[in-house]
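testing teh design pipeline on a random one, pls ignore if ur not involved
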């Protein structure tokens, strides 16, 4: 599966759709499940996004056989997820959402426990950058002398991930040595600052081409939500310690998961965040059998 993990999504689709490669289909299903989780967590929060995530994944499984070319795949799959996001009320303003990655602990409290390990200016910059009510000009001005915008925000975000990993035991899988400057739009996306829906959608579609970025967004999602809700505002008032440097088409069928029990959900490769593999969820596990080329849906209750 390691080779498949590095295979472009379009190639996985071709191998599954044209060659009947079940392993490629499984890898593709997992990739879309992880991608959907990252987007719903960032836009809706971990708990509020669970329903839209599961419904979108079920719709993905039910409709994937209608997609015939790789060129259609990203647009189609993103479109059906956005329908679920809109029906859920759209992007939320932030909040405090404990999950498996936080060990059930409050992300707001975890942030408060580690800000003393960071530079005060980094904490303040993150607070301003993730507050959509703060003018981006203010954020840019504050970043001057810290490497400029958006480099300073990316550096501060990475410093926070390290502090959460080292000081609070958060098992992030994506903590690079230095920030990737190609990810300049990332803080804008997480903060809900992108000016147009088309810009936000374009960024999300690009995320599907980089599963490490997808994992990063999914892992940091609950903390981004907490910062947007003001978790770092008080922390900027207290002095902080300087941190040390640093041929029939096979069914797409991931493992079944419980749709209604968050403590009994299957988890994917995205850190320890609870990610229901809901491409295989309805009232129980959904199976797809192809009989003589006809799709027959079987519900196991």
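output:
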């Amino acid at each position: 599966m390691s080779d498949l993990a590095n295979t472009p999504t379009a190639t996985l689709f071709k191998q599954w759709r044209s060659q009947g490669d079940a392993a490629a289909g499984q890898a593709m299903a997992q990739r879309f499940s992880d991608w959907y989780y990252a987007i719903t967590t960032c836009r809706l929060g971990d708990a509020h996004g669970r329903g839209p995530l599961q419904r979108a994944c079920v719709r993905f499984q039910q409709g994937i056989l209608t997609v015939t070319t790789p060129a259609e795949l990203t647009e189609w799959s993103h479109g059906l997820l956005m329908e679920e996001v809109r029906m859920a009320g759209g992007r939320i303003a932030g909040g405090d959402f404990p999950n498996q990655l936080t060990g059930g602990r409050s992300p707001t409290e975890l942030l408060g426990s580690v800000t003393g390990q960071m530079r005060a200016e980094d904490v303040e910059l993150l607070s301003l950058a993730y507050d959509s009510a703060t003018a981006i000009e203010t954020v840019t001005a504050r970043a001057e002398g810290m490497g400029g915008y958006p480099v300073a925000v990316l550096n501060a975000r990475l410093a926070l991930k390290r502090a959460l990993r080292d000081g609070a035991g958060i098992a992030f899988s994506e903590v690079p040595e230095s920030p990737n400057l190609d990810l300049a739009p990332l803080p804008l996306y997480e903060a809900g600052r992108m000016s147009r829906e088309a810009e936000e959608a374009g960024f999300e579609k690009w995320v599907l081409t980089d599963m490490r970025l997808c994992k990063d967004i999914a892992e940091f999602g609950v903390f981004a939500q907490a910062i947007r809700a003001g978790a770092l505002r008080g922390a900027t008032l207290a002095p902080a310690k300087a941190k040390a440097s640093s041929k029939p088409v096979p069914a797409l069928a991931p493992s079944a998961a419980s749709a209604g029990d968050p403590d009994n959900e299957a988890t994917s490769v995205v850190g320890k965040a609870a990610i229901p593999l809901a491409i295989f969820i309805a009232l129980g596990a959904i199976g797809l059998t192809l009989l003589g080329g006809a799709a027959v849906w079987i519900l196991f209750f």
